[in-house]
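TA notes, week 10

Several of you asked for a full example with nothing omitted. So below is the full record: structure tokens for the whole chain, then the designed sequence directly under it. When grading your own attempts, check the secondary structure regions first.
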């Protein structure tokens, strides 16, 4: 149920992904229509979907935003990734399945209601991590593994910003 690979340029069949974002310093970030919000330094997990013909190419776009190569802000997560103190550590993916809300609901409550959840009934698709980043990464992977259980999907972890 797990795989490897660098993920850059890889579309697969698409599916669900969680970006693990490290914010190295506290920051107040304007998040589109949600307004300005203060984020504490720490690890955040944003869960989204990459369905359709482009598959996981959306993750490549998030990587470019985190590297500073893309200034366009379409989604809430673009505002977080575009902050100079944010770094995309890695991406946990559920390949071949749409389990976005199932994964998001298995993670801790988000620091900002409505973040990434404007098209569903979830409170937020952004979760704030624990003080121990390694434990949070395991929790995110476990959320994906539970969500794909009983499906044809598989879970893998790929690099974030290169």
């Amino acid at each position: 149920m797990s795989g490897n690979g660098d993920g850059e340029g890889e579309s697969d069949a698409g599916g669900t992904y969680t970006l693990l974002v490290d914010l190295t310093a506290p920051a107040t970030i304007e998040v589109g229509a949600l307004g300005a919000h203060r984020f504490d330094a720490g690890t955040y997990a944003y869960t989204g979907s990459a369905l359709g013909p482009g598959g996981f190419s959306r993750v490549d776009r998030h990587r470019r935003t985190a590297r500073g190569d893309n200034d366009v802000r379409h989604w809430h997560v673009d505002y977080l990734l575009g902050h100079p103190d944010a770094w995309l550590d890695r991406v946990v993916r559920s390949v071949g399945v749409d389990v976005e809300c199932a994964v998001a609901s298995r993670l801790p409550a988000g620091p900002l209601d409505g973040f990434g959840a404007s098209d569903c009934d979830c409170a937020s698709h952004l979760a704030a991590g624990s003080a121990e980043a390694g434990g949070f990464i395991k929790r995110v992977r476990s959320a994906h593994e539970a969500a794909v259980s009983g499906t044809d999907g598989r879970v893998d972890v790929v690099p974030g910003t290169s």
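The longest strand covers residues 86-95. Use that as a sanity check on your answer.
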